[in-house]
Amino acid sequence: MQSILHLAVILSFIYMVNGVVLKSTMNNNYPQIAVLGCNSSKANLYYDTDKHVWVEHLISSCVNDEQSILEFCKQAYPSFRIGNIVRSDTVLRFENWCELISPIDKNGDNIHRCKQGSGTEEFVQPYRCLYLTSKREEITLPTVDCTMNSIIGTDQCLRAEQWRQLASVECENKNMNLNTSVMTLDWCGLSAFRGIEFVCCPTKKSNDNDYETSLDEQDDND
């Protein structure tokens, strides 16, 4: 019994000290998960909203569709009344996310965490785990030239990617590009919602000075 407890302590220490590291900027503190699917042998991740770190969920099962993602959200956050999910349009970069092995070799030393040669860098779009009293996701204007927009009150029940397509078209009609978007918390099905809020920003134009500079450089080379 003592040996099992000793092993559990060592395991906990290894995964706390040498766990996955987020290398991207994250400006929220929402319950969310990051998964790689059933073809990956890497552990699923969930965001610890108290410690503000990403944690490997070592006993979670295969996650390969939206229903299993919802179930993992419920498993990762048992104190929340998780009822829906929505995929973020932000890509996060993780390091030290690798295939895990037993931390102790046959000699009882040389503690390791990752299989040799297993890739440790991954880019993932996380899923936010939604519950009945979730806070509305914050959305801001990146520049003064951008505009805040919304499509609500249409009685349409659409998936998140469909709402983003409509938002992108509306931005294009204004000669702008879709910058960021968030679903309203009025959901009507699994990853389905009744509206979207989004930001349109001006389309970037090439600078004529850059063109002139490139011509000058070409003349100099000639």
UniProtKB/TrEMBL annotation:
<protein>
    <recommendedName>
        <fullName>E1 domain-containing protein</fullName>
    </recommendedName>
</protein>
<keyword id="KW-0732">Signal</keyword>
<keyword id="KW-0325">Glycoprotein</keyword>
<keyword id="KW-0472">Membrane</keyword>
<feature type="domain" description="E1">
    <location>
        <begin position="27"/>
        <end position="203"/>
    </location>
</feature>
<dbReference type="Pfam" id="PF02177">
    <property type="entry name" value="APP_N"/>
</dbReference>
<keyword id="KW-1133">Transmembrane helix</keyword>
<dbReference type="GO" id="GO:0008201">
    <property type="term" value="F:heparin binding"/>
</dbReference>
<dbReference type="InterPro" id="IPR011178">
    <property type="entry name" value="Amyloid_glyco_Cu-bd"/>
</dbReference>
<dbReference type="GO" id="GO:0046914">
    <property type="term" value="F:transition metal ion binding"/>
</dbReference>
<feature type="region of interest" description="CuBD subdomain">
    <location>
        <begin position="127"/>
        <end position="203"/>
    </location>
</feature>
<comment type="similarity">
    <text>Belongs to the APP family.</text>
</comment>
<dbReference type="InterPro" id="IPR036454">
    <property type="entry name" value="Amyloid_glyco_heparin-bd_sf"/>
</dbReference>
<dbReference type="GO" id="GO:0016020">
    <property type="term" value="C:membrane"/>
</dbReference>
<dbReference type="InterPro" id="IPR036669">
    <property type="entry name" value="Amyloid_Cu-bd_sf"/>
</dbReference>
<dbReference type="InterPro" id="IPR008155">
    <property type="entry name" value="Amyloid_glyco"/>
</dbReference>
<feature type="region of interest" description="GFLD subdomain">
    <location>
        <begin position="27"/>
        <end position="119"/>
    </location>
</feature>
<dbReference type="GO" id="GO:0007417">
    <property type="term" value="P:central nervous system development"/>
</dbReference>
<keyword id="KW-0812">Transmembrane</keyword>
<keyword id="KW-1015">Disulfide bond</keyword>
<dbReference type="InterPro" id="IPR008154">
    <property type="entry name" value="Amyloid_glyco_extra"/>
</dbReference>
<dbReference type="Pfam" id="PF12924">
    <property type="entry name" value="APP_Cu_bd"/>
</dbReference>
<dbReference type="InterPro" id="IPR015849">
    <property type="entry name" value="Amyloid_glyco_heparin-bd"/>
</dbReference>
<dbReference type="GO" id="GO:0007409">
    <property type="term" value="P:axonogenesis"/>
</dbReference>
<feature type="signal peptide">
    <location>
        <begin position="1"/>
        <end position="19"/>
    </location>
</feature>
